[in-house]
């Protein structure tokens, strides 16, 4: 339900992108618009495939191996360091998202797979992957959010068969529906803020998030070790 709320928010926020993609894939519009839309659709598919394969094959293994508070806190620190390195190692200059290639999309998709490890941010990893390919912050964030949608929807669909075989206690569905609405509103507001933030802070946009992850990751490690 939380995934449904988040995916809905992303679809609503980027509705123009998805509308243009749908029209282009179906062949509506000028030839150039159709070609651009179909290329964008292919790039999203290419970037999504690695996470789908890795999630299907490795999800249970990775969750079982790494899903502990101590490891999650450790990888939160790693995530912060990853964000800092991404800012410092990103390619010189900035390319617009329109210059993205199939190779770029595949590499960004491979970065997305690291989010299977608890503590690693999916959006952070994909933005870093795009920055290392020379895409600017705003374009990196846009593509990261676009490829999040099919992944989140896929994760939601995978849970549906499990729910059909579960006994859900009275009131749980209503509570989870409320949580989905809250998740959707929060996701929309977060996306609205981040897209403007990345547009206006192209030189150091990831640094505050890196400091946050490192600070709270280290703080969590101290608490976990001492208690």
Write a short abstract of this structure:
It contains 9 helices and no strands. The chain is an all-alpha fold and 227 residues long.
Features:
79% helix, mainly alpha, 0% strand, 227 residues, 9 helices
Task: Describe, in plain words, how this protein is organized in 3D.
- The protein is 79% helix and 0% strand.
- With 227 residues, it is mainly α.
- The protein has one domain (2-157, 171-226).
Mean pLDDT: 90
| Rg (CA only) | 19 Å
Distance between the termini: 33 Å
Largest sheet: none
What secondary-structure arrangement, pairings included, does this model have?
Elements: H1 2-13, H2 15-25, H3 31-66, H4 69-89, H5 102-112, H6 122-132, H7 137-164, H8 172-200, H9 207-226
